[in-house]
């Protein structure tokens, strides 16, 4: 199983073991990276506009969104600083670049949009508002900055004439891409998914009246549920596969995307419907789920150098990924995950089913046909996600390709050379270089 390598030595960081092998950076990959950079910048503007320039439609939902964004921003910023420390990068230098970017983006945002909504009354209201808006931009800039670094390394690797520089930039690219993917997955499950649950819960609380929310809100809910969250999980997995020098072709990425899209949609819809009418019971259930996941991670995931193997930081680290395990399961250590998936998805299926039954039998829901249809769609999404996951491991998992390659080698069939080796370059041997 592929996983992010947290156990790195601070003095000698080499998280990948490519053994002199690199892959060519295709133009398609460059296009994807440029598109990701654009979406990261767009997300900064969108979040600022949504939080501080639109009228408040629901005060409770607005406060919950602010708190979720603040806490997730603090966590991702701490992880970003720690990653820079491990990478031998001076956090002060990186933060200087981030702050300059913050000032530039803040000026552009204030120029494009109307003045931000004053959050406090009195003479200090504008000062507090400017401070809060700047803090939220500060929390978003590091992730965008890392994506831009990945793109720069990819461009330099693609067009470098010197093979040593090309290998160097390739290693930097895959390392930076894995780090950016980790921060992206944290932001996805710590900020994106909880905010989406709050938004959808408000819709159910209003008796499913979509006319009371703006078209921008409706589009953002649909895009986040069907595209953004599963795409973030797919990009994270793709970056880890690239780091481990495994193939992750487009058909495999599509299957992986559909797997996560179905399971995440079913999970978020199930939590949202009960949160709308039973917020206390839902909060207690989610808290118990988080606590169990945190304790299991604490006792099964060994301390690593990422946080200097301190017990307190170990528990905090596991508690953060315990939140991730509310929505989805990600690999933390090496090993087979069959029974892990059986237990995790079995518990999630039970929680989802109980949530849907509670909502379906309450007096606030609409007609019987509407209730049954919603329950059927939610369950079909979950079961479909499980079937797609099985299809992924049976037909599309990179291990299957390795097994087929070894069988071809044993049978004496010729296998096209897929790897560029430094020694071949030194001996002036020409080889084919595949695309990433």
From TrEMBL:
Membrane topology (UniProt): Multi-pass membrane protein
BP-aspect Gene Ontology terms: apoptotic process involved in development; engulfment of apoptotic cell; phosphatidylserine exposure on apoptotic cell surface
Keywords: Cell membrane, Membrane, Transmembrane, Transmembrane helix
Main location: membrane
Coiled coil: none
Chain segments annotated as transmembrane: 30-48, 60-80, 92-109, 213-233, 254-278, 284-301, 313-332, 338-360, 372-394
Location in or out of the cell: Cell membrane; Membrane
Domain of life: Eukaryota
GO CC annotation terms, alphabetical: plasma membrane
PANTHER family, A to Z: XK-RELATED PROTEIN
Family: Belongs to the XK family.
Protein's recorded name: XK-related protein
């Amino acid at each position: 199983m592929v996983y992010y390598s947290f156990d790195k030595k601070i003095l000698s960081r080499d998280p990948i073991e490519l053994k002199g092998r690199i892959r060519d950076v295709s133009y398609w990959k460059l296009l994807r990276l440029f598109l990701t950079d654009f979406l990261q910048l767009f997300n900064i503007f969108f979040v600022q506009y949504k939080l501080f320039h639109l009228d408040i439609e629901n005060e409770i939902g607005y406060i919950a969104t602010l708190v979720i964004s603040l806490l997730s921003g603090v966590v991702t910023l701490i992880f970003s600083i720690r990653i820079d420390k491990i990478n031998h990068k001076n956090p002060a230098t990186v933060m200087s670049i981030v702050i300059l970017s913050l000032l530039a983006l803040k000026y552009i945002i204030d120029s494009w949009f109307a003045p931000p909504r004053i959050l406090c009354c009195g003479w200090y209201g504008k000062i507090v508002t400017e401070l809060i808006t700047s803090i939220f931009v500060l929390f978003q800039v590091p992730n965008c900055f890392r994506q831009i670094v990945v793109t720069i390394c990819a461009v330099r690797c693609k067009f470098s004439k010197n093979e040593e520089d090309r290998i160097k930039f390739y290693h930097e690219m895959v390392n930076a891409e894995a780090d950016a993917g980790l921060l992206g997955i944290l932001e996805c499950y710590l900020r994106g998914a909880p905010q989406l649950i709050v938004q959808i819960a408000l819709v159910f609380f209003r008796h499913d009246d979509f006319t009371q929310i703006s078209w921008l809100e409706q589009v953002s809910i649909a895009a986040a549920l069907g595209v953004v969250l599963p795409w973030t999980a797919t990009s994270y997995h793709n970056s880890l596969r690239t780091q481990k020098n495994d193939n992750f072709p487009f058909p495999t990425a599509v299957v992986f995307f559909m797997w996560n899209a179905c399971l995440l949609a079913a999970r978020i819809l199930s939590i949202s419907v009960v949160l709308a009418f039973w917020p206390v019971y839902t909060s207690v259930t989610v808290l118990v789920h988080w606590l169990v996941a945190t304790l299991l991670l604490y006792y099964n995931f060994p301390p690593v150098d990422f946080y200097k193997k301190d017990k307190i930081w170990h528990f905090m680290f596991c508690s953060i990924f315990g939140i991730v395990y509310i929505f989805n399961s990600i690999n933390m250590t090496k090993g087979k995950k069959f029974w892990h998936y059986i237990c995790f998805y079995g518990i999630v299926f039970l929680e989802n089913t109980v949530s849907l039954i509670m909502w379906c039998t309450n007096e606030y829901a609409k007609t019987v046909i509407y209730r049954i249809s919603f329950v059927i769609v939610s369950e079909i999404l979950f079961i479909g996600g499980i079937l797609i996951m099985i299809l992924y491991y049976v037909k599309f998992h990179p291990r299957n390709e390795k097994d087929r390659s070894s069988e071809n080698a044993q049978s004496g069939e010729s296998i096209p050379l897929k790897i560029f080796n430094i020694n071949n370059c030194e001996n002036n041997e020409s080889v084919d270089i595949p695309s990433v």
